[in-house]
TrEMBL record:
<protein>
    <submittedName>
        <fullName>Pyridoxal phosphate-dependent aminotransferase</fullName>
    </submittedName>
</protein>
<feature type="domain" description="Aminotransferase class I/classII large">
    <location>
        <begin position="155"/>
        <end position="473"/>
    </location>
</feature>
<dbReference type="InterPro" id="IPR004839">
    <property type="entry name" value="Aminotransferase_I/II_large"/>
</dbReference>
<comment type="similarity">
    <text>Belongs to the class-I pyridoxal-phosphate-dependent aminotransferase family.</text>
</comment>
<dbReference type="InterPro" id="IPR050596">
    <property type="entry name" value="AspAT/PAT-like"/>
</dbReference>
<dbReference type="InterPro" id="IPR015421">
    <property type="entry name" value="PyrdxlP-dep_Trfase_major"/>
</dbReference>
<keyword id="KW-0808">Transferase</keyword>
<dbReference type="GO" id="GO:0008483">
    <property type="term" value="F:transaminase activity"/>
</dbReference>
<keyword id="KW-0663">Pyridoxal phosphate</keyword>
<dbReference type="InterPro" id="IPR015424">
    <property type="entry name" value="PyrdxlP-dep_Trfase"/>
</dbReference>
<keyword id="KW-0032">Aminotransferase</keyword>
<dbReference type="Pfam" id="PF00155">
    <property type="entry name" value="Aminotran_1_2"/>
</dbReference>
<dbReference type="InterPro" id="IPR015422">
    <property type="entry name" value="PyrdxlP-dep_Trfase_small"/>
</dbReference>
């Protein structure tokens, strides 16, 4: 990490301040490492708290904020904050000026300064006008978003539009197959709640949910909360940290109570994505068990479909949907959070391969939110219209993700040359907002922060080992050295 200064005096003062921050950083790491054995906090919270404490101490000691920002980089959690985008690779307001994303997405207020770019606010105003049009459309169809929705799954117009989006992937679904949720995580929670409820209606306890490790851990916590047994399958680096046909078949054979396979098509934290052939092999296993009379649901998390190359994503989804004999066992969950950097808006939905099963799951929706907020549904519809009319926005977001991942890999390689902390900095499959790397023997997330100033999340957060670490390219830009 480097900084440009206007004079030698300023440069010398900044260098001294950076040295003070590094000393504070080393002391804070030692303090938190000593506490680690006495706390039951998840590793992700330990690292997030460490960074918060360190930034607070630097502020209390009145260190130069520039020095603090250069020497403490929080890459633990967080998606892209469009208000903090600084990247501009071309002329201002032209192609490559990623600061415009806030304007394009309708997030930036009229006249708002986004790191030197003045937002017009046209997107902000357009979204609100589109929300009025959406409300008129819903009223004309007989749905009033301002009154109680007894089904709790959202308006049929938006659900029908989302169903249409699945058809290019070979899925013949309608609004009846779709349920809206407050983000993908909320949808997964409702699905697991519903499956557990069905089990108890049959006078038995919920079975097991199979999770491949490393993987996104929130659904694991949800599954345990609803009484499922957690069955974790450790994948191998040589397999790209993915479930193989042999691995899945063996674990299903050995664990007859597994009822759900949680499948992240493009993985968080590893950034690796299944190929079409790999997905076909996984689905072939599910099909073989179905032919023996065993019904296993596949809960496919599509959170990062849309962050990679479109042709690759389409091929993956076509392969996933090609197993027609088990289509009714498929549950797809998606959101706008990662593909469109809209984490705060919480636009998510679930698509059930079996429309009858979809209807049966509505009791789970009703028992959680009862009724989805009308204003939220209108904004969801407005954004759906925005992306249909302006596909270049997603290309711009993909470009920003690609730029940041490339810069982060290069930065980590440079740090490794200086500090020798990484055994391998993995190259991603051109998708997601993360980097997954293996540490050298004797290194961990604490030592990486102490030596480089970058805070990441240890691999144990994702059901793996702390020999690995995940960094996010989200909230903060990756400043090239």
């Amino acid at each position: 990490m480097t900084s440009q200064s206007s004079s030698p005096e300023v440069s010398e003062g900044l260098a001294e301040q950076r040295l003070l921050v590094r000393r504070a950083r080393a002391e804070m790491v030692r303090r938190h490492r000593a506490r680690q054995a006495d706390t039951a906090e998840p590793p992700i919270r330990v690292m997030a708290r460490l960074v918060d404490d360190l930034e607070r101490e630097c502020a209390e000691r009145r260190f130069d904020p520039v020095a603090t920002r250069l020497e403490i980089v929080n890459r633990t959690i967080g998606d892209v904050n469009v208000r903090r985008i600084t990247e501009c690779e071309g002329e201002e307001g032209g192609p490559g000026d990623y600061r415009m994303l806030g304007d394009e997405l309708g997030i930036a207020l009229p006249g708002e300064d986004i790191n030197g770019y003045t937002a017009s606010g046209k997107g902000y105003v357009w979204l609100r006008e589109q929300m009025m049009d959406a409300e008129r459309q819903l009223l004309a169809s007989g749905y009033d978003p301002r009154i109680y929705d007894i089904q709790g799954v959202g308006n049929p117009v938006l659900r029908g539009l989302l169903a249409e989006d699945m058809r290019p992937w070979g899925m013949t679904v309608s609004a009846e197959n779709v349920a809206l949720g407050l983000g993908a995580t909320d949808c997964i929670d409702k699905i697991l709640r519903g499956l557990a409820h069905f089990a108890r209606l049959r006078s038995r306890t919920p079975g097991a949910v199979l999770f491949a490790a490393p993987g996104f851990n929130m659904p694991e916590l949800q599954a345990v909360a609803y009484g499922f047994r957690l069955h974790r399958v450790r994948t191998r680096a040589e397999d790209g940290f993915k479930l193989t046909e042999e691995l899945l078949a063996r674990h299903l054979d050995d664990n007859p109570d597994v009822e759900v396979v949680y499948l992240t098509v493009t993985n968080n934290p590893t950034t690796f994505a299944y190929t079409p052939d790999e997905l076909s092999a996984v689905m072939a296993v599910v099909s073989r068990f179905a032919q023996r009379g065993r019904r296993v649901h596949v809960l496919a998390d599509l959170a990062y479909i849309g962050t990679g190359r479109p042709a690759d994503d389409e091929a993956r989804m076509l392969s996933l949907a090609s197993a027609a004999d088990v289509a009714d066992q498929m549950i797809y969950v998606n959101s706008f959070s990662k593909t469109y950097t809209l984490t705060g808006d919480r636009f998510g939905w679930a698509v059930f391969g079996d429309p009858k099963f979809s209807v049966a799951m509505r009791s789970s929706w009703m028992s959680s939110v009862s009724c989805l907020p009308g204003e939220w549904q209108l904004r969801f519809m407005a954004y759906h219209a925005l992306f249909r009319r302006n596909p270049q926005i997603i290309e711009m977001i993909r470009g920003l993700y690609r730029l940041r991942r490339t810069r982060l890999r290069a930065q980590l390689q440079r740090f490794d040359e200086e500090h020798r902390v990484f055994e391998r900095v993995f190259v991603d499959d051109d998708a997601t907002i993360y980097n997954w790397s293996r540490l050298r023997a004797g290194e961990d997330s604490f030592s990486v922060l102490e030596k480089t100033g970058i805070a990441g999340i240890p691999g144990s957060t994702f059901g793996y080992s702390d020999d690995y670490i995940r960094f996010s390219v989200g909230i903060l830009p990756v400043v090239p050295d």
